[in-house]
Amino acid sequence: MRVRQIVRSLHLRRPALAVMGAWSKLRQHTICVRRGVRYQLDLSQTIDRSLYFYGSWEPETTDFLLNTIKPGDTVIEVGANVGAHSLLMAKAAFPGTVYAFEPTAFAREKLHANLRLNAGISNIEVIPELVTNGNHDIPLRELVSSFKADSSYSPPEITESSGVSIDEFCKTRNISSLKLLKIDVDGYDFKVLQGAVHTIKTLQPVVLTELYDHALRRCGDSVNDILSLFSSLGYSGLLDNGQPIGNAESMNAVFRWRGAE
Q: What is the CATH number of the domain that holds 202?
């Protein structure tokens, strides 16, 4: 989660921000329907406020997901947070399955609350484990999942998860087909990919991942590590809006196996 990117993505000027802030205080807790999904929102939270006022969270990413996922697909989402994308992906994938990993209690409880509002969406499995590499390297256990609209943070949670890799998970669940692997884990992204190499090689999913060098370096990794790994796997990438990967501070990128292009 990148607060400066979030603010930029809203394309707001100060008067509009002031109006949104005032309205959010009047109706901090509300329920709304966006793209056919009901959400229980706390408008002091950035993701919730974006859903309420703009109809989606990360609109370019949302459009990519809905254009990519088809009925019957299997999706793994690492870093589901409150389910802003999870529920939409599940609707698109039905009767396929979305495996949504979210290790923080704050976000996971909000995700479950949103699921309870959508009785027709029954094809999401919420998994509380932290996803990492095959060595279960966990450089950071203090995780933040509450991002305030005023750019402040709630205190981080301490996760006790021992960690699981995507390769281990897919082997245990006998997953033989995977349309999409979506990763947004604030710096663990490369480690998640390290633990998914066998799955990527054999199932050749589309991979959507965050490229945020500052967060990656906190975990001893970098954007170049991610780009090099994908290159070695025969994948090429673009931003989720179809533009070339450049030198932006942070971005969501889509990688596809070159043989499928």
A: 3.40.50.150
Q: Is residue 32 part of a domain?
A: no
For residue range 31-62, list pLDDT tens digits in order.
999 999 999 999 989 899 999 988 999 999 99
| Long-range CB contacts for residues 17-20, cutoff 8 Å, separation at least 24 | 20/49, 20/53
CA–CA dist 223, 229 (Å, integer): 10
Task: Note whether 168 and 134 are within 8 A (CB).
Answer: yes
The answer as to whether 116 is a domain residue is yes
3-state secondary structure of 92: helix
Task: Tell me the two tokens of residue 255.
Answer: 């990688």
HEC string for 24-64:
HHHCCEEEEEECCEEEEEECCEHHHHHHHHHCCCCHHHHHH
pLDDT tens sequence across 165-210: 999 999 999 999 999 999 999 899 999 999 999 999 999 999 999 9
Q: Quick check: is 40 in a domain? A: no
Which amino acid is it at 230?
A: F
Q: Name the residue range of residue 208's domain.
A: 57-260
Contact present, 208 and 253 (Cβ < 8 Å): yes
Is residue 28 in some structural domain?
Answer: no
